[in-house]
Amino acid sequence: MELQHVAIKIFLRHAVDLSPFVGIFNGWIQTQWTPELLVDVADYQHVYAGPGVILIGHEANYALDNTDNRLGLLYTRKARVEGAAQEALQQAARAVLLAAHRLERENGVAFDPGNVQIIVNDRYLAPNSPETLARLKPELEAFLQRWYGGAAFTWSTPADPRERFAVTITVQGDVSLANLLYNLGVEETVIA
Q1: Nearest-angstrom CA–CA distance, 129 and 153
Q2: What is the DSSP letter of 127?
Q3: In a domain, 74, yes or no
Q4: In a domain, 1, yes or no
Q5: What is the tens place of the pLDDT at every residue in 164-186?
Q6: What torsion do the CA atoms of 118, 123, 129, 133 make, to the nearest 10 degrees?
Q7: What would the pLDDT profile of 32-91 be if each residue is shown by its tens digit?
Q8: What values do phi and psi take at 5, rounded to 5?
Q9: DSSP character for 185?
Q10: DSSP secondary-structure letter at 37?
Q11: What is this structure's pTM?
């Protein structure tokens, strides 16, 4: 199955005040530290259990998202990724992990990389149904085995068919952002 418009959310260990992230994300626009073109910041902190603070890009968005009252860093790819499903998953995972690593290092937030959600933001190609899970399960399992280095994990999917297709993953044991980046082939010099 062709897989595009992948979103990955890494949940935070603790709640944080989102106000400083408007300035932090504006700084990311100024430095253009990602390969994606970053263009604007939108502040939705006033929306209960909503999108929080969004860094809008041409190819992708980054957000400190509080959907369902679960605060985390959400990376949403908008532009096409060349290749198969594995490439789309790996591209999104690298992007969200590098951003989370930078936020931890520079801003003192703490992410729980063993608590992640993968979303396919395309209700037409990937409706939230048992059939979609059956089609994507081999791709997701192969990706998660590589990403988590063979660590045991469980996953769940939303029951409501009106929701986007998503899997929420919980890993047994401790994992670090640096280890997950290493598992995806990101060089240590990039994450140091």
Answers
A1: 21
A2: B
A3: yes
A4: no
A5: 999 999 998 889 999 999 999 88
A6: -40
A7: 999 999 999 999 999 999 999 999 999 999 999 999 999 999 999 999 898 889 999 999
A8: 60, 45
A9: T
A10: P
A11: 0.94
Residue range(s) defining the domain that contains residue 99: 6-191
Q: Does 128 reside within a domain?
A: yes
Q: Give the H or E element holding residue 112.
A: strand 111-120
Let me know if residue 41 belongs to a domain: yes
pLDDT tens column, 140-150: 999 999 999 99
Partners of 127 in the beta sheet? Answer: 164
Residue whose tokens read 């290493």: 182
Q: What angle do CA 145, 151, 157 make, to 5 degrees?
A: 65
Q: How many domains does the chain have?
A: 1
| Size of the chain, expressed as the number of residues it contains | 192
Instruction: From 187, 188, 140, 186, select the one nearest 167 (Cα to Cα).
Output: 140
